Amino acid sequence: MKKVITYGTFDLLHWGHIKLLERAKELGDYLVVAISTDEFNQMKHKEAYHSFEHRKLILEAIRYVDEVIPESDWEQKIQDVQDHDIDIFVMGDDWKGEFDFLKDYCEVVYLPRTNGISTSKIKDDLS
């Protein structure tokens, strides 16, 4: 079984998120999604509309997602890859190069962002 992992806040879920999850799942058999905890978002000075528990509930209902785990800090990625026997680490290409250190542990794939949609755009449009 080929296992894939991706990370994010996944707040204000939109079709760009769904396309990312779909493409990540296509790379393997089992998709783990690590979502930022409320405490980690505070450390990053990032405010989420939905709580960790609500974001987790939403993601668990998506057919591409097999497992949701908490992301509590920047440093846990190597441990997550090892603990969950991950074969492929996936992120959007706006992070290109940032996670290349994981290549010692798994394949690293940067997927193109979905054009025309982002959480930032949604927030800007609503302001």
In summary, what is this structure?
This protein is α/β, with parallel strands linked by helices.
Keywords:
alpha/beta, Rossmann fold, Cyt_trans-like, 5 strands, 5-stranded parallel beta sheet, 127 residues
Element layout with pairings:
Blueprint: E1 3-8, H1 15-26, E2 30-36, H2 38-43, H3 52-60, E3 67-71, H4 77-83, E4 88-92, E5 107-111, H5 119-126
Parallel strand pairs: 1-2, 1-4, 2-3, 4-5
Protein name: Glycerol-3-phosphate cytidylyltransferase
EC number: 2.7.7.39
Domain Cytidyltransferase-like: 5-123
Description:
It is globular and about 40 Å long. It is 33% helix and 22% strand. The protein is an alpha/beta fold and 127 residues long. The protein has a 5-stranded parallel beta sheet. The mean pLDDT is 93. It has a single domain (3-126), classed as Rossmann fold (3-Layer(aba) Sandwich). It is built from 5 helices and 5 strands. GO terms for molecular function: glycerol-3-phosphate cytidylyltransferase activity; metal ion binding. Its EC number is 2.7.7.39. InterPro entries: Archaeal_FAD_synthase, Cyt_trans-like, G3P_cytidylTrfase, Rossmann-like_a/b/a_fold. This is Glycerol-3-phosphate cytidylyltransferase. It is an enzyme of class 2 (transferase).
